Amino acid sequence: MITILFFASFREQLDTESEQMEMQGLTDVGSVISMLRGRGDVWGRVFAEGQTVMVAVNQEMTEESAAIKDGDEIAFFPPVTGG
Amino acid sequence: MITILFFASFREQLDTESEQMEMQGLTDVGSVISMLRGRGDVWGRVFAEGQTVMVAVNQEMTEESAAIKDGDEIAFFPPVTGG
Amino acid sequence: MNEIRIQAEPLDPNRELDLLRADNPAIGGIVSFIGLMRDINDDKRITTLSLEHYPGMTEKALERIVAEANQRWEILGSRVVHRVGEMKPTDVIVVVAVASAHRGEAFQACEFIIDYLKTRAPFWKKEQAPEGRYWVEARFSDQEAEQKWK
Amino acid sequence: MNEIRIQAEPLDPNRELDLLRADNPAIGGIVSFIGLMRDINDDKRITTLSLEHYPGMTEKALERIVAEANQRWEILGSRVVHRVGEMKPTDVIVVVAVASAHRGEAFQACEFIIDYLKTRAPFWKKEQAPEGRYWVEARFSDQEAEQKWK
């Protein structure tokens, strides 16, 4: 199982704060993004090619190419705007 | 008449806070320094060639070459150490 | 010595500075940045700001930034406190304060921490204006500010 | 909007920051430098610090520095307050605080003002240590700090 989190405008647009799913076929962050994009509709738009999507695995900022493993917490969010 | 002021270690070493004198022959800051140095003793040491002497004329930092005129306030002091 | 805190309660910068100062008589200088909610942004009048964050990751991101500042500069203490939740114009959003023996290092470390916080700590601002509510866009100038430390 | 003050009374940095902040809801950030009396300098334990200044010239020098900072950067307000007379370790010697809409300018202007104050404003420190009383020597590092703004 992996946990996927969405923050800020992503959370609002997708109307989803978090979800859990089996690893089946997912190997890296990029494969998770493809799976989410494949849901179409608003998911397709948020995760469209060329959109700026930031990702953290287990609360560390990382890249699309990062491998994932069972138990990981994967978070997607737009560029940060604190401070 | 010109007014000459001394601050910090200069004031202490010379045991003088201020003095007033006629312009007679004094034309620029350098001539005032030469005159003070000419007094010898501790004056000679404070204003010795090669000593760092800062000078302000009418409360503006300036150089040895600055001209002076009647009524000016000329202050001598060591490098500043505030803040 | 390096305090990092996220809070929903109003943030009092004076208290943070007092605590940092009380720490150590070897402190020669404290440089601080206080980030305030402005009443106008991009020509819109802002009435309320909502700040969302990613609990857990935020603290980790800030700890990493402060640790890097401590590696780069000789620091005697620091405090990074960020507010979340709803706030009003003139409210304090963030305080970054750095103490050192000599001022140059405190200036560098303080600016480094706030520059990195702006691009690497997971906070998001949503503004309420008469025109509606919208998420604040990331600024290119913040990306540039981060680059100068590379 | 640009306060410059010399005072013999204890200096409260919080009050200065509060006053600067209360000025204007367009302020997005305040950068401040608080200079504190250290208990040790060049390995000597300092018990008392006496600060002498040149009344009249000091204010003029600070006004000129702050005016130059206003020319170089977009500033919404500033406060420069320096204490004179006798003080004890951990006492506040100086506060420089600068407000702006965007943080980069406040950082630059604040550091510029304290760097120039250190080399151009007529203040002199005398320290009391168990070994005796002596005038503080000017630091070469302060000359270098000034150079970076040329």
How is the secondary structure organized here?
The complex is a heterotetramer, with two copies of chain A (83 residues) and two copies of chain C (150 residues).
Chain A lengths: L1 E5 L1 H7 L3 E4 L7 H9 L3 H6 L7 E4 L2 E3 L10 E5 L6
Parallel strand pairs in A: 1-5
Antiparallel strand pairs in A: 1-2, 3-4, 3-5
Chain C lengths: L1 E6 L5 H10 L6 E8 L3 E2 L2 E2 L2 E6 L3 H16 L4 E7 L1 E3 L4 E9 L2 H18 L2 E7 L2 E4 L4 H8 L3
Parallel strand pairs in C: 1-6
Antiparallel strand pairs in C: 2-8, 3-4, 5-7, 5-9, 6-8, 9-10
Helix pairs in contact in C: 2-3, 3-4
Structure overview:
The complex is a heterotetramer, with 2 copies of chain A (83 residues) and 2 copies of chain C (150 residues). With 83 residues, chain A is α+β, with helices and mostly antiparallel strands. Chain A has helices spanning 8-14, 29-37, 41-46, and strands at 2-6, 18-21, 54-57, 60-62, 73-77. Chain A has 3 helices and 5 strands. In chain A, strand 3 (54-57) and strand 4 form a beta hairpin. Chain A starts with a strand and ends in a 6-residue tail after the last strand. By secondary structure, chain C is of the alpha+beta class. Chain C has 4 helices and 10 strands; from the N terminus they run βαββββαβββαββα. The two termini of chain C are 26 Å apart. At the C-D interface, helix 1, strand 2 and helix 3 of C face helix 1, strand 2 and helix 3 of D. Strand 2 of chain C pairs antiparallel with strand 2 (29-36) of chain D.
